[in-house]
Amino acid sequence: MKVSVKLDSNGQLPAAYGKFANPEDFKNHYPLRSFPIQISELPAQTRTWAFTFTDPDSIPVCGFSWIHWSGANLPAEVLELPANASQQPPVAFLQGKNSTISSFIGETDPTIYEHYVGPTPPDQLHRYELRVYAVDQILPLTNGFWLNELQHALTGHILAHAKIILPYRA
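Above: the chain's sequence. Below: its structure in token form.
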């Protein structure tokens, strides 16, 4: 299984998908335009795929790995999510809660906390992790799932896994 995201000339996630995005791509100070994802070479038994996009470099800043986006139950025949798929999905798929809903932030708008929220590193370049999973079934989740619910649902159903690091500047 392979996953790819087009990076900018500096080898980083393009500015358009985080704190340096165009003003029209923000809501409540959050950048909401998700980046495109391409996958290939899924195992033949794949029924769906799922993904997580997190920031482990946020641990020294906020005390936990920030969840920016998660998705599940993308059909195996869908090999690409275009830009802004979080806000304007080209196919039906489930999206989980991100860390803006945490008690530290308290975001109350589900159009923000149940979708992509782009990188806004406060202190230095952060290295974000995009993990993609080929799954042998439709996962028993609903929109707004928590990351741990996705992790539990994936147990015993991952056919293949890929991880890429997507740096984004402060």
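The mean pLDDT is 97.
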